[in-house]
Design goal:
Layout lengths: L4 E3 L5 H4 L7 H6 L1 H15 L2 H7 L11 H17 L2 E5 L6 H10 L8 H4 L4 E5 L5 H10 L5 E7 L5 H18 L7 E5 L5 H12 L5 E4 L10 H4 L1 H6 L4 H14 L9 H16 L3 E6 L5 H15 L1 E9 L5 E13 L2 E4 L10 H6 L4 E10 L18 H18 L4 E8 L2 H22 L10 H11 L6 H9 L11
Parallel strand pairs: 2-3, 2-4, 4-5, 5-6, 7-10, 7-11, 11-12
Antiparallel strand pairs: 1-12, 8-9
Helix pairs in contact: 6-15, 13-18, 14-18, 15-18
The protein binds 5-phosphoarabinonic acid.
Length: about 500
């Protein structure tokens, strides 16, 4: 994509040595797998039925039609014109993309200063934890009459979001009067889940109550910022069309067959070699930019839930020619790099010590920003800092960090973004999505499910006495309680 560049010099042995870096021969040796992965992914991407079954329909999100975009933008403006506050409820993929977008695309301190918000509502995120303190304080301090609620849950069943929604709905009901439901918008599955049933029931009573939209089929939570996150973008005044255009242009770049001109393939291939052959199983993602920290947090979920897998993938061909993927329970692989988010320059006084001198098992990804929205110059009379621009200093700090890592033979790469605009942010997140999908291909796992998340949920459901819990699951929990010997608690 024109504008966003991927610099991978420091991933190579000529910079960090053969033990810790990729040799060009090793990259060539991977070309057969890269071609196979490209051919397979392209085949699936060209078939709607496969895309939907596998969970790859997110690759169509950048190409949503202009009317859909206009309608959402209009609704966002309507909400922004009427309410002082928006509370957005959701967790995981129903939260992290929105938070990343808000921090990146709205000015810093957006919620704190009216002048910064430019007549847009404050946006608070809840339903992403079960910590009672945050929601209590929020509800005690917001005026329900001036607050709009957006609840997002694809399944409509997630405990964190559901619990928060029940609480917030009661609070609205008490404080906003009988038409409180007109202050709620739900984004959920078109057919299933208790949120969908509730929304449909409320709509039958009052068409203006519990307005809602349906999530696109075949788009998993963490890949759905360009679906479920659009209303939030519109509320905060971000131009949805620009975000989508950035993603669409990145789609073009990230579907090219040629490894040397496809940044997502290159990113995935180099990390696969470092992970498989050089023991780099920790992925540090470190934007040198405060407002991209939440984008790094979003990518943590993308990498961890997509690629941290127990089983290899089983590809099933269906009679209509489409594909379905499942987990091959006969092939346990336990793969996946462990992601950690950090930010420069803040974490140069923290995790960086370990990055430089701790175990050499990491690959660092920097994000470098060309032009910031504002600039500050250090006043004259302050020695070597006199007249220096903050943006120049942060850029120098990033370069210095690369240098320090290279000196200690630590592989790293840099994604260079010209500026943090809606267009480039759309491109940036789409790059990470495609890189993750391709890395999943190279690892031969299903990057679009997250079965490991079920364990804690089932345990909670069992303890809460949820009706209909799978009998075998309930039995497993009953037979295998946590062992807590007081001798080992001091
Ligand atoms: O990527 C995913 O699918 C998950 O992280 C989900 O987004 C998360 O579990 C929340 O699920 P839901 O939107 O169904 O409440």
């Amino acid at each position: 994509m024109k504008g966003i560049n991927f610099d991978f010099n420091n991933m190579f042995s000529f910079n960090v040595g053969g033990e810790n870096g990729v040799d060009e021969k090793e990259l060539s040796a991977l070309s057969y797998s890269v071609n196979e992965a490209h051919n397979h992914l392209s085949r699936v991407l060209s078939d709607k039925s496969s895309r939907v079954k596998i969970g790859l329909e997110w690759t169509r999100l950048p190409f949503q039609d202009a009317k859909t975009v206009r309608d959402i933008q209009k609704l966002g403006d309507e909400i922004a014109g009427k309410y002082e506050n928006v509370v957005s409820l959701g967790i995981g993929g129903s939260y992290l993309g929105l938070k990343a977008a808000q921090d990146a695309l709205c000015p810093p301190y957006y919620n704190d200063f009216a002048g910064v918000r430019k007549k847009r509502p404050r946006v608070y995120f809840e339903g992403n934890n079960l910590d009672p303190d945050t929601l209590s304080v929020l509800l005690k301090n917001l005026n329900p009459k001036k607050t709009f609620v957006i609840v997002i849950s694809k399944s409509g069943e997630t405990t964190e979001t559901k619990t928060a929604f029940i609480t917030v709905r009661e609070w609205l009901k008490k404080g906003a009067g009988k038409h409180y439901g007109r202050q709620i918008f739900a984004i959920t599955d078109p057919e299933s889940g208790s949120l969908r049933s509730e929304v449909d029931a409320e709509q039958r009573q009052d068409a203006l109550s519990f307005r809602n939209s349906s999530l696109m089929k075949g788009v998993g939570g963490r890949f759905s910022e360009l679906n479920m996150g659009l209303l939030h973008l519109a509320v905060t005044g971000v131009k949805i069309g620009d975000v989508l255009k950035g993603a669409a242009d990145m789609h073009k770049a990230c579907t090219r067959q040629e490894l040397s001109s496809n940044p997502a393939y290159m990113y995935a291939a180099l990390h696969t070699i470092l992970y498989r052959m050089k023991g780099k199983d920790i992925a540090i993602i470190m934007p040198f930019c405060e407002t991209l920290k939440s984008t790094a947090d979003w990518y943590i979920q993308m990498l961890a839930e997509s690629l941290g897998k127990k089983y290899a993938r089983k590809v099933k061909k269906l009679p209509d020619g489409s594909e379905q993927w499942a987990n091959d329970e006969g092939r346990a692989v336990n793969v996946g790099r462990t992601p950690i988010s950090a930010r420069g320059t803040n974490d140069l006084h923290s995790i960086q010590q370990n990055n430089i001198e701790g175990m050499n098992n990491k690959a660092v990804t920097f994000i470098r920003v060309g032009k910031f929205r504002s600039e500050i110059k250090v006043p004259a009379g302050n020695g070597i800092l006199s007249g220096k621009k903050f943006s120049g200093l942060i850029g120098l700090a990033q370069e210095a960090t690369e240098w320090a890592l290279v000196r200690e033979s630590r592989p790293n790469c840099t994604i260079i973004v010209p500026e943090i605009s809606a267009y480039y942010w759309g491109g940036l997140i789409y790059f990470f999505e495609m890189a993750t999908a391709f890395e999943g291909e190279l690892l031969d796992i299903n990057a679009f499910d997250q079965p490991g998340v079920e364990g804690y949920k089932n345990y909670m459901y069992y303890k809460l006495g949820k009706p209909g819990l799978n009998k075998a699951v309930a039995e497993e929990i009953r037979k295998n309680p946590l062992v807590k010997n007081p001798k080992f608690i001091i």
